[in-house]
Amino acid sequence: MLKKDQFYKDILDGLSLFYDSRFITDIRNSALRFPVSQLGNALNRRQTASKLWLLDRLFENHGGELGEVHVLGGWYGVLGALILHDPRFAEARITNIDLDPSCAPIAESLNAVNVERGLFCAATADILDIRYTGSNSVVGDTTLSAPDILINTSCEHLNDFAAWFDGLPPGVLLVLQSNDYVSETEHVNCVEDLEAFKAQAPLAHLIYAGGLELDKYTRFMLIGRKLGDV
Question: Are residues 76 and 153 in the same domain?
């Protein structure tokens, strides 16, 4: 093991004992198992602040009983881990879905304790290919449980946002995030401001709309249900 690796391992080992946290232990183990991943980016200050903001607003406006949650474009499963390690959310089961097949093993490692508890799983899929049948969500030959909540914190990455949004099922609670960070080349669907995001994702039952100003960009969030939902 490199000295640098040992250095960070020792820090995280100590923190996991001090905070009595399996999450920190799982982060440590994941960083050691997947040293070439972008796990550091997924856990950086901006990413974490955006997710903690989501958790606060979701709890304030919806409560702690989440049920079946699908995190779309969920990358390494950090949001799922934060939800499941947050004592405010006692009733939640997370399915983390990402197009990149390299994400699933990292997400399951980062959520090892949640996998053991039967509260977290990772799936590989293009979210545009998910078919919502009412009682299930179907991706190719895989059938998933129907979600109570759909979370997409990566709306800025969607080439065809309208097609994806139009295909979402009625009745499900949506938690959507986008941003105005146009200098990032992978951000093909940024919005100028909160009003532009509300126009792009029209929600008849909007329970929260707001922005979080960060040093390089503003992240926007909507929580609600689609037009036409009952």
Answer: yes
